[in-house]
Amino acid sequence: MEGARIGVRLAAGQARAALVTGAEIRHAACPSHDDRALVRMLRGLARDVPVRSVTWDVSDELDPARAGAPVAAVRVMPRLPVRGLGSGHPSPLLRALLRRQAAVIGGHDVFGVELAALDVRRLLEHADAAHADGTTALAVTATGALGCPGHELAAAVLIRDAFPQLRVSLSHQVGGLGLLDREAATVINAALLGTAGRVVERCARVAARLGASAWFVAGDGGRISAERLRMLPVLGLSATGAAALTGAARLAGVADAVVGLAGADGIAVGHVRDGLPHVATDLPGPGGVRMAVPQASLTPISGAGQAAAAVFALLAEHDQHTAVVAVAVQGPEEPDRAAGRGAARELARAVAARLPSASVLVEPAAELAAIGAACTEPSAWLDTILYAETSEVLARAQAAVEQRALTLVAESGARLGSERVVASRAVPLSFLRSGSYRLLVRAGGRAEDVQPSGEPA
């Protein structure tokens, strides 16, 4: 038998794994807290197959409401607010995570022009206060950081030199146009740094016992390296839905599909193109917080009739899709699986009544997100701002950002030469001066552990 990849979803005290080859899927489960049980499970799946990689969906392990630690937040801005930053964020989750908030003078405009010099003294005073009260991580969000991250980078160096125990999360590494969405993502990222380090180390240790490398599913449906998840754990949130979409398309044997994910709680509708889930950055994340982080665009719907209408709407919007996949998402208990199967079959019948040749019903025996995790490929998503006076300057700047994305894909284990730009959009920002653009770049590649044909190696 040829080599294979394994995907594992850690959730609700259980580890559910799937080994995927070109012709076979094996699955198993075990308690997620026991490393020895995890190793036995993976070895059992790979008993006669050379496995090169294990890709983990750890989004449940990174739930900030449960795994997040209190953090301090510093906003770098050209003018301090008259009444301070206020006592609370609208989100209960953010309020629970923020032990202290402060603002210091500094920042740039979106074109990279410094608006005020960074107030180093006040910055270090706030870092000292955070360190004194036992806070272990600090989130820094600077005005205009996407145009020029200089003040955030300087702040990180100053804080780490003065307080080596403090972990620092910087907003420009997360990306995103909106200051509040970017700040929310940066705070949650800082809160998860300690947990992410432990989770990554553990998963890598277990995979190494199998002689395999460890990778992680990102919210955009691709896989990222252990190092990137350790630095940006916020990228691993909401990964389960994206992995399920990927797994559904793989099981249906298509790369382009509108997908209905059916479970005990209803149906979620999304779509996949070229094997990658459609994603957006303005969707609610954990605790309903909107963050500047890509995640699969899934619309939850209660009934099969409404789900069918949503499926047809997506087909009309994306006419390049050639298949509809209705998927029974199996829960941990048989009643959940039965409810998912019933909803999936009802949706499949509704679609087949109108499009008989376009309906594919998939009822996997394995955890769908684990199958999708095994099938994920290296990816990267960059969301930034740039200024270009001419089309030639825009093309050069866009090419530079695209190259950054391709480099991230290569760092996530892409086979040399397989890296590609999936999408690259320069959107004019009409509320700023002419020549201002928001640039969204998505890149992908094929993993080293697959053959050029695309079948698992």
Automatic annotation (TrEMBL):
GO function terms (MF aspect): hydrolase activity
Highest taxon in the source lineage: Bacteria
Protein name stated in the entry: Hydantoinase/oxoprolinase
Organism: Nonomuraea pusilla
